[in-house]
Amino acid sequence: MLMGGRGRGRPRMDIYSWIRGLPRQPGQQQPQSEQELASKMLHIQSKRFYLDVKQNMRGKFIKIAEIGPDGRRSQVFLALSIAAEFRDHLNLFSDYYASLGPPNPDTVPDDGKLKSEVMVKENRRYYLDLKENQRGRFLRVSVVSQTMSRGGPRSQIAIPAQGMIEFRDALTDLLEEFGTEDGGFKGDLPEGKHMRVDSKNFYFDIGQNKRGVYMRISEVKTNFRTAITIPEKSWYRFRDIFADYCNKIKDGADKSSGGNASQDETSTSK
Predict the structure, then answer these.
(1) Is the Cβ–Cβ distance between 112 and 124 less than 8 Å?
(2) Which parts of the sequence are annotated with region: Disordered (predicted)?
(3) For strand 193-197 and strand 200-209, is the pairing parallel, antiparallel, or unpaired?
């Protein structure tokens, strides 16, 4: 059943969270002025799944929440474009699952993975793994931020394999109504870059929100992470200031080296 919904209240948010590209992961506050546009609920085996189309100042997205029989809740967020790609993968996973014979413990890989795919959206990776264990076969969907250090938090849900077609159909209905455009800046954003200096990792990620394109530079160490955000309109000025400092340090080093060389020559001539 498809239901409309009103937006929630206006909780406090911090500026660094506001400028990040896509909806937050579990445990983070909801963005300001978030509005629920539609919702679907699915019963698959002993689990309930809620597919909610939401909208905030950064655009539309889908929140998928899994409620286990013990009430435990897990959730992932998908931009509409990624949701469309996920829908297409569900077709392939469903076909592959249908081609499998009855479960056979002797033929299951050690890690339990039967088929895997990866989706990438800006600074996030989405891992799709069709797995098998003692409880049966299921599709695990995991979301990992590329700006987090190794071992950082990941959000994930597990869809029973028997329900993948039903899940695909529900997702298709929502995408047909709301489209597959994320909103915001139109165009291809450059891929993120990474560099390591001593024990530090630096990540350069290009994102977008309602105010435009921005670059987020993150410094990551063990149990420590900080970031700055630079709006696209100030990139050239930022570059010029940075280049000016580079030139001044280089000129100072050259002069120092030249001065030492002159002293050595004078000393030799004597």
Answers:
(1) no
(2) 251-270
(3) antiparallel
The mean pLDDT values, 10 residues at a time, for the chain of 270 residues are 40 39 44 77 95 83 94 93 95 94 77 91 90 91 73 80 96 93 65 87 82 84 84 88 92 74 53
CA distances from 149 to 154, 163, 174, 218 (A): 11, 34, 34, 11
Residue type, 9: G
Report the distance separating Cα 221 and Cα 199, nearest Å. 7
CA distance 210 to 221: 30
Which residues neighbour 251 within 8 Å (Cβ) at sequence distance 6 or greater? none
- From the list 167, 156, 108, 155, the residue with the least C-alpha distance to 135 is 108
Q: Where are the beta strands (DSSP E) in the chain?
A: 35-44, 47-56, 59-67, 73-79, 113-121, 124-133, 136-145, 155-160, 193-197, 200-209, 212-221, 224-231
CA 94 to chain centroid: 25
